[in-house]
User: What shape does this take?
Amino acid sequence: MSQDTLLKSARERMDKAIDHTRDMLRGIRTSRASSALVDNVRVDYYGTMTPLSQMAQVSVPEARVLVIKPFDMTALKEIEKALQKSDLGISPENDGKVVRLNLPPLSGDQRKKYAAKAKELCEEGRVALRNLRRDANKENDALLKDGEVTEDEHRKLQGQIQDLLKEFEKTVGDIQEAKTTEIMEN
Assistant: This one.
């Protein structure tokens, strides 16, 4: 493995960690309704845990309302049960054709709780990035041990890996700040 390949691989893996962090943050409630709130909800559909997005159309007709229209009307009750069991804290309303989720305004305490959850998820993202740095450094050490790089190239590559980590940690910080701002606004 060359130095360029190692850096490219580390960058790709760190990009995936950032994408995962963004996906996890989408599920945190803000003052506006978003179809991403129900992305992680799984429904027991004929004995198989199926993502809600594969079973129903999710729309946002108003700022604080989510409407879930199942493709198969027989799954309406199961979708309602899955939403009740989820950690959304919202009671679904079933009118026989669609399930509505009316999102009440967030209280100050709820906003702080969601902001803390966002911070926690971003910290998990930072830990994942640091683990990827460790892995890249181990690969770099292996290159040195195998004689594929000199001591100077080894140190330079370590610096480049560290710079890569700083770049991605800054991205996580920006993502966290944006999500916290979104949660705290009315």
